[in-house]
Amino acid sequence: MFFAYSEKGNRYLDRKPKKRGEKASKVGISNENVAVIATCDRSGNKDFKVATRGRISKKDLDRILKGKLDKADVLCSDGHRSYGAFTKAHTVTHKKFNASKGQRTVDKVYHIQNVNNMDMRLRKFMDSFNGVATKYLQNYLNRFLILEKIKNSTSKMTTVAAIAFASNSA
Questions:
Q1: Distance between CA 48 and CA 54 in Å, rounded?
Q2: What 8-state DSSP symbol labels residue 90?
Q3: Cα 52 → chain centroid
Q4: Among 48, 64, 69, 41, which residue's Cα sits nearest to residue 137?
Q5: CA distance from start to end of the chain
Q6: Beta strand pairing status for 110-111 and 105-106?
Q7: Which of 169, 121, 127, 128 is nearest to 149 (CA)?
Q8: What is the pTM of this model?
Q9: What is the rounded CA–CA span in Å between residue 51 and residue 59?
Q10: What is the rounded distance in angstroms from the CA atom of residue 26 to the CA atom of residue 134?
Q11: Buried b / exposed e across 52-65, counting CB within 10 Å, b at 16+?
Q12: Burial degree of 3 (CB within 10 A; 0-12, 13-18, 19+)
């Protein structure tokens, strides 16, 4: 996913200042956007890492995914070439998805819907801040992950507490 590169709060900008609400002139892969890599596994482990401005390279993936795929056999992603180069170098099976053709699953087992859902929730979370400075973006990503863990753990705790309360009152 991509976020607009922002120097919010800087007194000395590298570019001409933007007006309120002005969007980046280019969408997707450009130096006006910062790439964020989202990872998620079937065990519920989630992570976001700020990759780089512009294009994602194999070197960025090596840095971000280092140690995360030690026990993994399959990497599911979009069809970006960097993922293919990464999986060849690390001998991991690569399952590609072409969303523009409406492809949602491969072999009726592999999908990236959990990551897409996590991205949607992150975007909603980030909307309330009206843009964040790129230098603090990783802090906001970490905050989102912590809030997600708290939300998931309290929902499980309340379910357990409700079951315990129901059994004690019966």
A1: 17
A2: T
A3: 13
A4: 48
A5: 50
A6: antiparallel
A7: 121
A8: 0.77
A9: 10
A10: 17
A11: bebebbbebbeebb
A12: buried
Nearest to 37 by CA among 25, 49, 45, 52: 49
- CA proximity to 116, closest of 157, 65, 78, 72: 78
The rounded distance, in Å, linking the Cα atoms of 89 and 93 is 11
Beta strands in the chain (DSSP E): 2-4, 33-40, 46-53, 74-78, 93-97, 105-106, 110-111
Amino acid at 146: I
Other beta carbons within 10 angstroms of residue 87's beta carbon come to 20
CB 59 within 8 A of CB 53: no
Euclidean distance between CA atoms 34 and 8, whole angstroms: 14
How far apart, in Å, are the Cα atoms of 8 and each of 19, 123, 151?
Answer: 12, 18, 29
Predicted confidence pLDDT, tens digits, the chain (170 residues): 888 888 887 788 777 777 766 666 766 677 788 889 888 887 778 889 998 887 888 898 888 888 777 777 788 888 788 888 888 888 888 888 877 777 777 787 788 788 888 999 999 999 988 888 889 999 999 999 999 988 878 655 555 555 555 555 44
The residue among 40, 58, 42 whose CA lies nearest residue 120 is 40
